[in-house]
Amino acid sequence: MKSTDALFPIADKKPTKLEKHGDIRIDNYFWMRLSDEQKNAENKDAQTEKVIRYLEEENEYYKAITKDTKSFQEDLFEEMKGRIKEDDSSVPYEDNGYFYITRYETGNQYPIFCRKKGNLKAEEVVLFNVNEMAKDFDYYQLGGLNVSPNNKLVVFATDTVSRRQYFLRIKNLETGEIYEDVIENTTGGSVWANDNKTFFYTKKDPVTLRSVKIYRHVLGTPTSEDVEVYHEKDETFGTYVAKSKSNKYILIGSYSTVSTESQYLDADNPTGSFTVIQPRERDLEYSISHFKDHFYLLTNKDKATNFKLMKTPVNNTGKENWIDVIPHREDTLLEDFSIFKEYLVLEERTNGLNKIRIKRWDKTDDYYLPFTEETYSVGVYANPNFNTDTIRYSYNSFTTPSSVIDFNMSKKTKDVKKEQEVLGGKFKKENYTSKRVWATARDGKKVAISLVYHKETKLNKNTPILQYAYGSYGYTIPDSFSSTRLSLLDRGFVYALAHIRGSEYLGREWYEDGKMLNKKNTFNDFIDCSHFLIDNNFTSPKHLYAMGGSAGGLLMGTIVNMNPELYNGIIASVPFVDVISTMLDESIPLTTGEYDEWGNPNEKEYYEYIKSYSPYDQVTAKEYPNILVTTGFHDSQVQYWEPAKWVAKLRDVKKDNNLLLLDTNMEAGHGGASGRFDSLKETAKMYTFFLALEGKISNLKIKS
């Protein structure tokens, strides 16, 4: 990657006047926005052709600039691919008399879903070979597999565009026949009633993609006759349908950022009426599970900021009947719970670290599973069986590959069912070091940074560090293992995960202090972590890099406006950078449901606050670091025009000669490529950007 004679594209300016609250913004690149109809039309109109041509010109420029790194990218891809066990399979899990397995075959991009009846020595039956299903598509995603109670039918979901609008179909597992019925524009999820002929599913609004309606389908009837059983009319809420682990109830949930509501129906009576557990109230959240004659609720009722566990009788579910099971704790976030016949399993987070707590219902035992590493990630999953003494959980850390472990809660013994294999013969966990350090933010808050690096890497001003963060929606990025990341660590990079506000790393208040009118804490935390790494001689601005995606891409766009001098290069992946315009447009997916995350700019206070950090609006004539921006043409979460407009505006006003690259995947959406190898190629492209900037590619260094 070096200086070339290639000329970067210059986007046309067509000023569009945008006015709100008496404030006028001029958007020179508003013309880049296309509707779905324009994108998908067989005969493209002039605007569509112009937009596509611009994106393709940017792609050609990216290819020209990175031409000399192509060979290295391919080698890096093969290196990362070489660590993966291609003929791999999941640990089987048992559900309703069958063992389910997902496996991959050497050379194939996609999984094969299988099952065996009764025991693992039984004959394997292939449910879906996604490699065959995907062969005629550039993008293919199979999901939502939902087997009927009698094990004879399965509902499955497919997405061939990457806009998360799934088609639902039904397969007969006895005959192999796939029924002709196709249900369009769904979330991909479905729930069987206990009669083996009725299932429920969720449809999306075709424009906003909001999960808006629950329908009931009966086998043998046309989908046009499906019955609408619920319509979520509040535009700030979405809805979903699920089934209790006890299999006794169908559950409809409605959710917003700060409020939830649940309804239930006896699964033996699918044509009956749903009953609301507790009517929605602002700032009251609860999720439910069923056990015997009670519903158990994970809730923030009574100002339980870090949530607590309560229960209420099935026949008397109003909040006045809720009683504490696990009280609220100021220092511990209760993230989730699982119910078994003899045990209650709690997933907690204290001082940033995951914990698993096991309690017997008869109160004869109450203990935590022991974990000894300083940073790690653990979670309970794939436990469909209710009557068992064994829980399955996953464990990994920055230096420990992912393990699937079965733990006997009675005997307190564990059985490691599988540890991720890292092939290639070079990986040894003892060759890597991980630790936590704590930066002091400008308001005095302590912000954790999790670090991992090769033991031979010395921390000094010449050490390259990739600083990563997300910092929104209360989502906490786990300190987890990555075999692809080894390609950076083995070349002297340090990976630094900043647990900034906006996540729930230090509890629910950590999230509340990083959203709405506190959103700037997220950006300040990241910058203050960068200052900490520089001031403590871990690195220097010439060797500090940053990366984030989606809302983390917003973070990238904001920090390079605020402190561009701190970074040598950044990657903003599918970045949410045109915040004010998007949050003013209710026709765009996610907008109305996120007013309680970012604020509603239809109110002047929020408009002014959002505009003050919105990356696109705050681009100014100054020097920026080297920047690579990636997006997907079919992205439904962050529309492609946000990064495209941002790049065009940066090109027009920035005062440096540093790289500015836009790479658009014209076949994918928010999650990037669907195949496991294609996604590795995208990672190789991004890592090459950092390694070339740092001069880690032999005889090749970017020249600004």
Give the key terms.
704 residues; alpha+beta; eight-stranded mixed sheet; seven-stranded antiparallel sheet; 37 strands; globular
General description of the model:
It is built from 13 helices and 37 strands. It has 704 residues and is an alpha+beta fold. A hairpin with a 5-residue loop joins strand 7 and strand 8. The mean pLDDT is 93.
Which structural class matches the secondary elements?
alpha+beta
- The residue ranges in which pLDDT falls below 50 over 5 or more consecutive positions are none
Mean pLDDT: 93
Overall geometry comes to: globular
Total helical elements:
13
Strand content: 25-35%
Terminal Cα span: 10 Å
Which sequence of strands runs across the widest sheet? 30-31-33-32-34-35-36-37
Helical content band: 10-25%
Rg on CA atoms, Å: 26 Å
Number of strands: 37
Largest sheet: 8 strands, mixed
What's the topology here?
Blueprint: E1 16-20, E2 23-27, H1 36-40, H2 46-65, H3 70-81, E3 93-95, E4 98-103, E5 112-117, E6 125-129, H4 130-133, E7 141-147, E8 153-159, E9 166-172, E10 183-192, E11 198-204, E12 211-218, E13 227-231, E14 238-243, E15 249-255, E16 260-266, E17 275-276, E18 286-291, E19 294-299, E20 308-313, E21 323-326, E22 332-339, E23 343-350, E24 353-360, E25 366-368, E26 377-380, E27 390-396, E28 403-408, E29 413-419, E30 432-440, E31 446-454, E32 465-468, H5 486-489, E33 494-498, H6 508-512, H7 520-535, E34 544-549, H8 551-562, E35 569-573, H9 579-583, H10 595-598, H11 604-611, E36 626-632, H12 641-653, E37 660-665, H13 676-693
Parallel strand pairs: 32-33, 32-34, 34-35, 35-36, 36-37
Antiparallel strand pairs: 1-2, 3-4, 4-5, 5-6, 7-8, 8-9, 9-10, 10-11, 11-12, 12-13, 14-15, 15-16, 16-17, 18-19, 19-20, 20-21, 22-23, 23-24, 24-25, 26-27, 27-28, 28-29, 30-31, 31-33
